[in-house]
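Can't paste images in this forum, so I'm doing it all in text. The chain is below; anyone willing to post the predicted C-alpha cells underneath?
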Amino acid sequence: MDLLNTLVEKGLRRELPTREEALAVLATSDDDLLDVVAAAGKVRRQWFGRRVKLNYLVNLKSGLCPEDCSYCSQRLGSKAEILKYTWLKPEEASEAAAAGVAGGAKRVCLVASGRGPTDRDVDRVGKTIAAIKEQNEGIEVCACLGLLSDGQAERLRDAGADAYNHNLNTSEATYGQITKTHTYADRVDTVQKAHAAGLSACSGLIAGMGESDEDLVDVVYSLRELDPDSVPVNFLIPFEGTPLAKEWNLTPQRALRILAMVRFVCPDVEVRLAGGREVHLRTMQPLALHLVNSIFLGDYLTSEGQAGQADLDMIADAGFEVEGAGTTTLPKHRSDVAAAGAAGSPCGSGGSGGGSVCGSGSAPASASGPAGSGCGSACGGCSGHAEPAAAVAAVAAVDTGAAVDAGAAVDAAPAQAAAGEVRPGLVTVRRRGTGTDLAPNA
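Text version of the structure:
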C-alpha cells in the first residue's frame, strides 16, 4: 500500500505526515489492519527497539473534584461509586509506589484530583517525591495535579519531579462540549509551563468520547506542536454515573488504528497505552505493543486494570522486553535536548514535509481530564490508578503472580458477534477497590 510505505519513510526520517495521510490511516479497513500495525511497528522499532517502559500510578487524592469533565468518574456531580479520600501521607504514597517499582515500573505518576494545586499542595507533593526517591534510587517521578499557577512547575522541578502530565484530551473545537469549568487554552498553558520549567512534558488524549476522525487528528497534531516527550493514549472507560456512560464507540480494530496514527504523527516520542486498554483492546492488547513503547502497570485512578503479572507475561509472550532502569527511554536526539534543559523545536515546526516529529527535541490515561482537574490531566486519566495501602495489596501481585481482579471482567461468553461490532456487553468496568477490604469512601 503506497500510503503505508510513505508513512514508514516519513516516520523513519521523523517527518510530519499530511493531515490527509493521518485521516487515511483511521479510514483503513479491517482487512488492512495487520498491514497498518506492521508499518507503524517498523517506525516504533526504529526509535525504541522492542523495549516497553512500565509506569505506575499512585492516586494521591481521589474524588471530590470541582471540575465537570464529562468523562471523569471524579467529576463534580458524579454518581459513580468510586473510592474517595483526601491526600495520602508521603510515607503512604511511597509504600504504594514500591509495589509498582517491584514489578518493574520505571516511572511513578503521582495524581491528585482537583482543578489545580495550591502552594501548600505543591509542598506536600514535594515531600512525597522526596520520600519516593529516597526509597527508590533512579526512579522517575511524574506529577499530575491539574492546572499550574506561575512558579509551581519550577517548585516541582526543584523538589525532584522529572515530568509533568496534563492531557489535552480532545480537539480544541470540541473541548467545550466535554468540559465547561476550564478551557482548552488552560490546558495548553499548563503544558507550556511544564516545558518552560525544564520538566519533561507529558500530554495525551482520550479516544472514544464520540469524536470524529478529524477531531482525533486535530488533537494529535496539536500535541505534536506542543512537543511533549510522552503522549499517553487513553480510551474512554464509560463509567456509570457520568455523562458519557453510554458512549461505547470503540472496537479493538479502531483502537489499534488510532494508536498507529499517533505513532506515525509522533514517531520518536514515548507513546503510552493508558487507561481503557483492557476494556477496548481486550485480547488484542499484544498487537498494540507493536505501536506503543510504554504502558501503565496495574490499576488506574478509579478503575481496576489487568493483573500486573498478566502485563509482564503479555510483554514477554509478544517478544518484547521490559525497559531497564538504566536505559534511556527516548532516542538520543531527543534525550540530549531534554538533558540540556532545552524545549526543543516545536513539534510541528517542520510542516508537512520535514522537521522534528512530535518534537525533535526531547520524552504518562482511560479517560483523563481536561484542562484543570488533576484527574483531568492525570497521567492516564480518570480511570486510573491504585490507591493508598490498597495499591500495595492490589499491585503487589505484579511480584507474586497472584491474580488481581481484572479491570475488565469477562462475562458469560456472548453469541458470536459480527466483525467490527462494538460490544459493550463483553466487559464489566470494575471500580478500584473491588475485592479488597477498603471502604468505598475510605
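The longest strand covers residues 51-61. The chain is about 35% helix and 10% strand.
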